[in-house]
């Protein structure tokens, strides 16, 4: 650098240093003098505190090709030359900035939101694949139905009261079930096996475009869980009802034929108060308020080997998990299972990427994943997992600090780790907010979050 340029840089630095020093001295003089007029005109800087109102946010990642992430520019790029195949890290969906989101669920290539705002009367929205009208009848400009949506659109429900809100939503392979606060349960999408909870008429070609009102449930439903092609309803008193495809016994009704209307599931859960159910495919796990675990459905990969030696189980059986302790939550995927006990410890078994490293692909009994994998250390001694979720081939766990950890098969970047490789141990996902709920589709993920400040 020449001497003239060096001198010029020095003079600029000296000028700015003197300027800010002088401003600081002047402000100090004003404060000492306590001149109210001068002090009043000084700028005021506001910083976030613990009393700052925190807002809901939605982060999405994974397969972007079919519109399930809700960003039209991923599917129809304006700047990039080609559409985006997948998003490998959490991306904030602006939809939550304008809507009050109560729940979110990921299906096979589509996402549905229970949400509302002050500008319209809709309380259900969907984006992504719509081949079976699982996000409602959506019409294009020429009057043709749209088989895919690139961003969230309203789903019209046949409501009598415009103040009725959608509270909970569940999504399967190609069907959606929603719980409302005042008018019961509605379902839409593919009903070929009765998964929508109403009789199926194969001669009526307009059946799939309908929104059904689910009847036959004797009490209020608090949760809905959708497998691939069947549906499970959990009532407020802890009873379980089911309908849909039952070739592997996943409806738990004691037979292997399809069930077209919700029916009460009995077996070993009769008389028990069930508090949570999990099913991502055709194997079902349920946990009672006593911390006991029950299972039914497919057991080809030893998911239910502690309860049966058969490959299918069509009625709920108690699963003796030994020294696992009192269970709080269960997670059942396509070939693997996991439970979370009251101490916040995670146990896994079955077949697949279980989180025990690349050399372990199957386990016939529940095996503990070390707590330090989820952030427990001497600086964070109170860290514990409080939410456990499973898709077909990957897991997700949320800690009491709102941190998200994922592991398993990284299909279409559904783990959100910024790389394409599978993850053999739980690994923290860089979500810039407190995670409240995680929903895992077959190849994409949605996280309902709350801002830090």
Terminal residue distance: 46 Å
- Overall form: globular
- β-strand number: 28
Helix content: under 10%
Quaternary arrangement of the chains shown?
A: single chain
Structural class: mainly beta
Spatial extent as radius of gyration: 26 Å
Overall pLDDT metric: 89
Summarize the main sheet. Answer: 4 strands, antiparallel
- What's the number of helices? 4
Strand content: 35-45%
Query: Order of strands in the sheet with the most strands?
Result: 2-1-28-27
Enumerate the spans where pLDDT stays under 50 for 5 or more consecutive residues.
Answer: 3-16
Put the structure in a nutshell.
This protein has 453 residues and is mostly beta strands.
What does this structure look like?
By secondary structure, this protein is mainly beta. It has helices spanning 3-33, 36-40, 72-75, 95-98, and strands at 56-63, 86-93, 100-106, 110-116, 124-129, 148-154, 166-171, 175-180, 185-189, 211-214, 221-226, 230-235, 240-244, 259-264, 274-278, 283-288, 293-298, 312-319, 327-332, 336-341, 346-351, 362-369, 385-390, 394-399, 404-408, 423-429, 434-440, 444-450. The strands form seven sheets. A four-stranded antiparallel beta sheet has the order 2-1-28-27. Strands 3-4-5-6 form a four-stranded antiparallel beta sheet. A hairpin with a 3-residue loop joins strand 3 (100-106) and strand 4 (110-116). The longest helix is centred in the first third of the chain and has 31 residues, at 3-33. It is globular and about 75 Å long. It starts with a helix and ends with a strand. The relative contact order is 0.11.
